[in-house]
Q: What sequence folds into this?
């Protein structure tokens, strides 16, 4: 069973930065895509950033220019660098991956809380 473990969340003031990490239990090159989602209280889970093997990185308009998704294969880890954080970025952030070998198989991490104070 593949595991994704997020870390790096916390409390930060508006304008500050955080870097989230998602460590996978197997090579990240075995996934077709790696994504970060977030879910605020009472709201749906929304896609924030994605890294696809076939066509690069993509971002939600809400975070474009402030967040950066990246990977480090040697550590089987994908990151989300979040700069110029705003109170509306407050949410639980989840790592998600789609299996490159098993059709319709995907994986979720347990989430990490980010709170941005004004």
A:
């Amino acid at each position: 069973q593949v595991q994704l473990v997020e870390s790096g969340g916390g409390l930060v003031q508006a304008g500050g930065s955080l870097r989230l990490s998602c460590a996978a239990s197997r090579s990240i090159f075995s996934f077709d895509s790696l994504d970060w989602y977030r879910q605020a209280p009472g709201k749906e889970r929304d896609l924030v950033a994605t890294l696809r093997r076939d066509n690069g990185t993509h971002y939600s308009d809400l975070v474009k220019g402030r967040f950066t998704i990246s990977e480090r294969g040697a550590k089987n880890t994908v990151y989300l660098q979040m700069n110029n954080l705003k109170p509306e970025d407050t949410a639980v952030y989840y790592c998600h991956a789609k299996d490159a070998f098993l059709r319709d198989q995907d994986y979720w991490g347990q989430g990490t809380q980010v709170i941005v104070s004004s």
Q: What stands out?
A: The chain has a mean pLDDT of 96. The first strand starts at residue 4 and ends at 7. The radius of gyration is 14 Å.
